[in-house]
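All the exercises in this workshop are built on plain-text protein records. Sequence and backbone structure share a record, each on its own labelled line. The question running through the whole workshop is how a given chain folds. The record below serves as our worked example for the rest of this section.
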Amino acid sequence: MAVNGLGLPVRLHLTAGQVADVTQAETLLDGVEADVVIGDKGYDSDAVVKAIEASGAEAVIPPKRNRTAPRPYDTDRYRDRNLVERFWGRAKQYRRVATRYEKTARNFLAFVHLASIMILLR
């Protein structure tokens, strides 16, 4: 999920549960214009950081502990990372999204889109 500075949804990309988030980062950010891209440690890879910087944005992603040369990042801006978590908290107020009753990815994605529209209309 990509959200803007107000915590409103910009783009959603649904994957299987066993797929790592970092593998989908470039697809999620492709075509989204941003000055700053904030992500958690799961998105710390050289390829993702280079793709973000190539788009002209600043990557605010803390380095993983196993990095040999830790990369600097803006800790003050990193505090805004919770915008995505707060979006999911609002989306899970809709029961079908929280309980994942839908058996197919297509139907679940449709209800997440519906919840996103309801959040945008607030």
